[in-house]
Amino acid sequence: MAEEIITHSSEETVQWGREFAKRLKPPVLVLLTGDLGTGKTTLTKGLVSGLGAANENDVTSPTFTLVHVYGKQAEVFHADLYRIETFHDFETLGLEDMFGVPAVAILEWSEKFPLPSPWPVLRVRLEHLGGDTRRISVLDPP
Ligand SMILES: Nc1ncnc2c1ncn2[C@@H]1O[C@H](COP(=O)(O)OP(=O)(O)OP(=O)(O)O)[C@@H](O)[C@H]1O
Ligand SMILES: [Mg+2]
Prior knowledge:
The chain is α/β, with parallel strands linked by helices. It has one domain (3-139): P-loop containing nucleotide triphosphate hydrolases (Rossmann fold). Helices cover 21% and strands 27% of the residues. The chain starts with a strand and ends with a strand. Bound molecules: adenosine-5'-triphosphate and magnesium ion (MG).
């Protein structure tokens, strides 16, 4: 059974992310799925700050920059496939370079293209439940 939590504010989502970060042992790939504005970047603020790689205020959306790197030794990668339109562009991005050193890699809009991962994968789905309410599900491996 997938593990689920309901949050009622962005602060709650960040806080849950901080707790969840304790379970992330590098190397691991965290695939985030969910519609626009469900809180993937917000959750990442909690993950990155919980891992001690950066302050949550320094975690911003990689929608346009595509990949952000947090931490002095590049402990956390944060990427976003939202603007990637073709499989060719996806391949050109070279995301597999993230897998060079054991780290935590977080991918928004991961459902757009499949990223073969040599690392264990965790899938987290975010859903709108109206207003500021969100459901966050840690999905079972397929
Ligand atoms: N419970 C909640 N959890 C997370 N964010 C929330 C919640 N309630 C309201 N929000 C608001 O929803 C928005 C979520 O934006 P965020 O950029 O994190 O989403 P996203 O899933 O990364 O979107 P995108 O697909 O554009 O990258 C923020 O403005 C945040 O303040
Ligand atoms: Mg985002």
